[in-house]
Automatic annotation (TrEMBL):
Source organism (scientific name): Anaerosolibacter carboniphilus
Superkingdom in the source lineage: Bacteria
Database matches in NCBIfam families: asp_kinases (TIGR00657), PRK06635.1-2 (NF005154), PRK06635.1-4 (NF005155)
A GO cellular component entry from the record: cytosol
Principal EC category: transferase
EC number: 2.7.2.4
Transmembrane residue ranges: none
UniProt-annotated binding residues for ATP: K7, Y8, G9, G10, T172, D173, Y178, R183
Binding site for substrate: T47, E74
InterPro entries for the chain: AceGlu_kinase-like_sf (IPR036393), ACT-like_dom_sf (IPR045865), ACT_Aspartokinase (IPR054352), ACT_dom (IPR002912), AKii-LysC-BS (IPR041740), Asp/Glu/Uridylate_kinase (IPR001048), Asp_kin_monofn (IPR005260), Asp_kinase (IPR001341)
The UniProt record lists the keyword Translocase: no
UniProt protein name: Aspartokinase
Amino acid sequence: MAIVVQKYGGTSVGTIEKIRNVAKRLAARRDQGDEVVVVVSAMGKTTDMLINMAKELSEAPSRRELDMLMSTGEQVSISLLSIALNEMGYESISLTGFQAGIMTEGFHTKARIQDIEIDRVKQYLSEGKIVVVAGFQGINENGDITTLGRGGSDTTAVALAAKLECTCEIYTDVDGIYTVDPRLFPTARKLDAISYEEMLEMASLGAGVMETRSVEIGQKYNVPIYVALSSEDWPGTYIKEYDVTMESKAITGLSVSDKDLMVTINHVPYEVKNISNIFQSLAKMDVNIDMISQTAPSHGLVNVSFTAPKSDEDIIQGIMDQILKEFAGAEVEIEKDITKLSVVGIGMRSQSGVAAKMFKIFADNDIAFKQVTTSEIRISYVIDTTDKQRAIEIVAREFNL
Ligand code: ASP
Ligand code: MG
């Protein structure tokens, strides 16, 4: 007999029929003798709908009130699921984030879990109840309801599993983690296992299956995370600590993102404080910079390029207008039709030649890249979006993904 935390996302509890189906799965697990905690998201697109209602009333609703509003979505799904379980003859109790002891810190609508007072959950488990916990929400030091940022139910689930020292099973509408997003490369393989580190790189690079922060918590507390389909029994993917069997390949996966734009500032007078000022202004406006490169100074001038989210385009444009005023002769180019393509693999640590192979692939196939960055386990390239599909297919084939 073991404790398990399961999590079902919005699509998996999107209708009454689907909620009944989740209840059946939980009951089956209980019948096997396991103690079950289940975290659920709001039904279907409920959270979006709630936010839209608030936006009809105000352009900038108070974040505290937004949290109050959004948290109701999960309250609906936990109570319905608990009702379904009770009806099937399984003792169950639903708990809001507050009732489950989830204490948060930080800003409304993007709070972070600080700690979980787990006694109440444990008590109900010991009474044989299936404990249904609202995802995505907690309570702050003022006793106000908070939410953890969009997609935050994954974080609730992994944090509960960390506290209960058990496995976390994430049931969703995809059947696991793939080497490449199957919508972009249909013959991509499903991975049996992937390390936390690789998953973190892939998640932050655009592989949308798991919320990034939940993987960080999993890594920190060494919680095995299992991602699988909610609609069928079908083997999924384990996200877990690295082990030697994972190192046989240099590349584990390929991530692709169209979410960034690339800014190039040409002819910046070469002084460290100028470069610093540019990035200070961006940081002040909370613009998240990803790749940065700078040319060597020539005639006292340098060119600087960086990538940042397309969603911040207007802020970036404003800052660039300011910079053009400051540096006479500078030119700014903002490119939007770019794609970031990254290869990720822990195997890169011990196998050399991945970068060389990538450069050769690009050269042989006449694919130009505008920017390259590397970390210990990933190499990212910025290419034109028009080359995206071709690049994915060639790289995936060359690395057997
Ligand atoms: N219901 C929340 C959202 O839509 C939390 C979640 O689904 O994980 O973002
Ligand atoms: Mg989600």
